Structure prediction request, 234 residues.
Amino acid sequence: MKYKRILLKLSGEALMGDKNFGIDNNRLQQYASDVKQVVSKGVQVAIVIGGGNIFRGLQAAEGGMDRVQGDYMGMLATVINSMALQSALEQNGVTTRLQSAIKMEAICESFIRRRAVRHLEKGRVVIFAAGTGNPYFTTDSAASLRAIEIEADVILKGTRVDGIYTADPEKDPTAVKFNSISFKEVYERDLKVMDMTAFTLCEENKLPIIVFDMNKQNNLMKLIEGAEIGTLVK
Prediction:
């Protein structure tokens, strides 16, 4: 296996599948079975999932809502998605732990770095919910921060597209895909891989990012085995 410990970043929107809102159970089950495959090979997996399929703090702020209030609501949306993913994983026989950046004793543990690492070492999938616990930070920033804290080998950013392109491939048919690209070039070309805070954290800590299509079954396993899928940022 190419990677021993990974942080998988999933977007909330991807959970919608073909729906316009909420969670598509088929997509959830596909993700769970892909993660199970990787865990069965002894890879340690941590997951951060967004909340955009339920609520986005930034959009609420644009509509006149207080930004901080909106961001906290967005964090709660990530908890709902994390609980759904936890349930799907456990139905597939994968042992999990859910840790939240906001205290919610009735449904999950609070984030404690040493405890998270211990869970990973014991073969449990750890899901980090509620972002960083702070407004103005995205779940991309949370993913970067947690990956660095648990000393992950790589961030695997699962999206709907199969890598990073010169432009949005869903809008521009002439967009060309990169197989690998440097952090510097991403800055220079102003490519939207992650928000700047998250991206800078990864660069400063020499943490590689791979952007790939998570909606294609078995892609995660192929990546772990070393296949050149998606785009590597290093």
